[in-house]
Target: DUF433 domain-containing protein
Amino acid sequence: METLERITIDPARRSGKPCIRDTRIAVYDVLDYLASGMSEEEILNDFPELDAEDIRASLAFAAARERRLFGAA
Model:
């Protein structure tokens, strides 16, 4: 599975917010956890349905969104 293919958007799930695969865990949830200081290991322990590639996909999704919004430098 390609990294960004792990992110799904379904209007029936979390009001259409980008989520990881078919879970209800939103990309911004993972980003918030990382920003608050949680380690990747802590996130994976708290959410066993995730794996390390899901965390990387969340970061890649956020980076791609930033590039689209503000253009590549």
In short: The helical segments are 27-35, 40-46, 52-70. The chain has one domain: 4-65.
